[in-house]
Amino acid sequence: MPVLVGAAGLGTEAGWWSYKHKNMQSAADSGAASAATAGSNLNAEANAVTATYGYANGVNNVTVTVNQPPSTGNFTSNPQAVEVIIGQPQPRLFSALFGSAPVRITARAVAVPNAGTGCVLALNSTASPAVNVSGNNQLNLVNCNLYSNSSASPSLNVGGSAAVSANQVGVVGNVSGASNITATNGIRTGMRPVADPYASVSPPPESSCISAPQKVNSNGKTTTLNPGCYSGGVTVNSGEVLDLTPGIYYFYGTKGALSVAGNATISCTSCTGTNGVTLVFTGSSSSGWATASIGSNAIVNLTAPTSGSTQGIVMYGDRNMPAGTTFNLTGGGTQNFGGAIYLPKANLSFSGGNGTTTSCTKVIADTLTFTGSSNLKVNCAALGVAAIGISTAQLVE
Description:
With 397 residues, the protein is mainly beta. The protein has two helices and 32 strands.
């Protein structure tokens, strides 16, 4: 009789343990996936999720362990992977006839974040708004997302008869003019800040600079410019054509600005394959900081290099320049940048891209104002442009 009772009890309890493990595994899966997309506070995110399944760390002998990277398995060398392990001892009932020690049930899951599809990111954490689309301006983000890291109200303003179309809109603060936004995957407010994808990227030091101003005024003939440092500035007058050869161009100091007038042309006709250009705007506290201005209807066709220190970056702004430094890239539909426009301290006014001939344009600045019509998309695999944001997570273990 004891053997029969014990066997029946063991079968019953084994079914219960199997149920507990299944429920615990669901908690671990959800906790790992949620933590992998959190960006920060991984422990708090994972614990909040597992608690909804009845597994709160430290309650009823439950342990919830979060590791990034995982402590075991095939993803220990992946710094983005998140491991969640849940454990809880289960008291014996009838099976106590075969042993007195509790049976510990554990579940483990590992998730890896998938790269986000952001194409617009405002980095400023307090500006109100950090992204502004007003008047009758139109911003069309083809299959990509808009993010604002500002916690202000509003963080994003879409005013007047302006309109924004995007895959998703996500802001740390709030949105003004949500009725003017069409977002396939919704509008997220109160989200965590999106990481700066180029926070650790710096171009190599500039070489000695050419102080003489470079002015393109050759009666419509093409002028060629080679990579180097230009502290006297580069000016392309209306109707003129400037062709850049592949490489890195440094614009240094207040006098070293890039100015492209309306109806002027700046391009890189020899940018093919891995060859491309990066325009670097830099300076110092004593000489000031170079900026860029591109006028309406200017023709711009520039593509970033696909390798090297500035891979995927077509325009780079020095992080040491004062926040709010003015950049105006308002060429409109004929202004096409292939790659990332990275101006982390700029107050950027932007209008450009047509979303058809330009398959990859990402805009990252301190604050952003969109004027006219802008059309951006992010088919950026060929250029190696860094992803903006984290969209989903994939369970891998």
